[in-house]
Amino acid sequence: LMSVGNMMEAEKLLRKSIGRQWSQELVQLYGLIRTGRPFEQIEVVEAWAKRHAQDPHVLITLARLYLHAGHKDRSKSLLVEAARYGGGHEPFVELGLLLEAVGDGDSALQAYRRGLERLGQVSDGISPLAHGDLLPLVSESND
C-alpha cells in the first residue's frame, strides 16, 4: 500500500495490526507513513510509548513523525533517547541526517561515526549509554 501511495489505508492497516499483536518491525514501518496528518499518527505512537517507554523502535518512529511535523528539537531528543536505549545504528544515522540538515556538520559526523560503530552490533546486545557518552565533543576525541 505504501509503495503505491495509499498511505491512509497503509496507516489504518498497520495501526490495527500493531494493536492486535505488537511488532517492532511494523512499528518502524509505521514511522515511514506520510498521511499528511502527522499529529494524529503521533497521538497513536505516544499511546504505544506509554506501554513501551524504553523501546528504541517506538522512539525512532516518534522521532520520524515529529520531524515530519516540523518539530526538529523534539525529534532530536527522541533520537538521542533511542540511542541510549540500545537502538543500534539507526538512531545515530537519523540523528546525523537531522544534524546535517540544520547545519551542525561536526555533530552530524560524530553521530554518523557512532552509527557506523554500531552497524555490526546487534541492537539488543548493546547496553544503554550513559547520559554523557552519547556524542563527545570533537576536542574530546583520542589524538
Describe the structure.
Residues 136-143 have low confidence and may be disordered. 62% of the residues lie in helices and 0% in strands. By secondary structure, it is mainly α. It is built from 7 helices and no strands. α1 (7-20) packs antiparallel against α2, α3 (38-51) packs antiparallel against α4 and α5 (72-84) packs antiparallel against α6 (90-101).
Number of helices: 7
- Which regions have little confidence, pLDDT < 50, spanning 5+ residues? 136-143
Q: What distance separates the N and C termini? A: 50 Å
**How would you characterize the largest beta sheet?**
none
What string gives the helices and strands in order?
A: HHHHHHH
Strand content: under 5%
Query: Overall pLDDT, averaged?
Result: 86
Secondary structure: helix percent: 55-70%
Q: What structural class do you assign from the helix and strand content? A: mainly alpha
Q: Tally the beta strands.
A: 0
Descriptive tags:
143 residues; mainly alpha; 62% helix; disordered C terminus
Q: What's the quick description here?
A:
By secondary structure, the protein is mainly alpha-helical.
